[in-house]
Amino acid sequence: MMKAEVDEAGVAGLEVRLAASTDEVEAAQRLRYRVFYDEMGAMPTPEMAAQGRDFDDFDDVCDHLLVIDRSKGNGASGVVGTYRLQRRDTQKFSRFYTASEYDISKIAAFPGHVLELGRSCVDPAFRTRMTMQSLWRGIAGYVFSHNIDLMFGCASLHGTDPAALAVPLSFLYHNHLAPDSIRPRALPGLYSEMNLLSPQEISARQAVVTLPPLVKGYLRLGGFVGDGAVVDHQFNTTDVCVIVKTDLITDKYFRHYDRTATRNL
Question: What's the whole-model pTM score?
Answer without folding.
Answer: 0.87
